[in-house]
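Handout, page 2. Input:
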Amino acid sequence: MKKLFGVVCATITPMSKEGKIDIESARRLYSYLADEEIHCLYPNGTNGESLSLSAEERMDLAKTAVQAGKGKQSIYIQCGASTVKETYQHVLNAKQIDADGAGVMTPVFFPMDEAAMEQYYVELLEQTGDFPIYVYCIPTRAGNDFSPALLGKLMDAYPALQGVKYSYPDLVRLKAYRNAPSARKADALIGCDLLAHCCMISGGTGWVSGPAAVFPKLHVRLYHQIMENQMTAAQKTQEQISQILGQMSDIPEIPAIKYMLMKAGILATDTVRMPLRMLNQTEKQRLDRLLADTEVWR
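Output:
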């Protein structure tokens, strides 16, 4: 079984100038990330604008990711959608196209108590059998949280459930997931580049990053330095990543990543889909300076 681990790239969705999905650019992006030794691809998540895509568009991207990366890296498809029915369809599609597994975001907008959250994942896990699943918990966006106690309970009942991707800067919660009351140790990945190093030395299994698509060498280097116990070097690399993020902090992340990948010749355009907006000229000039000053950006 290939798991989510190490440097997981939450990939953006390339689009044409007309706003249609650009499969050729997606194929280049996925192949590029495999060549750069990114450990896992994670398309159709938040950075992939998934809730702005049709089911057909998401399935096309998932198939392209599997074709480009299978055998080179783990391919996990984020399958959470605005409706329960579509979420289940995406998970079953990911299984059919031979992805390595699926990430499933908690339900969004409608408030969920513990019983409702348990019912949601039980229904899913009953349908998907031995297909590996990770919970995707992003409480500030989804409006719902997922407790460590529920993770442990479900992991004991369903061997296919592997752990959680937690997109919130809280290492205490991350450790609680790792120590969830279960006969198995849960995998726990953080969706926060600033805490990648801290996550790993606290027992986490990896981090999920959008900017890793633009700066893969830095992220892969950090992982290897941590695994080789080169902690002084790892702290320096983490600081480089943090400084880059600081320079991007007030620029919308998804269009920024697309713009920089376009500058690298990987994407044909930097188009985003509403409600997101394109960058203004000042923001683009700032990113141009950032790329010029960052020797390892490719």
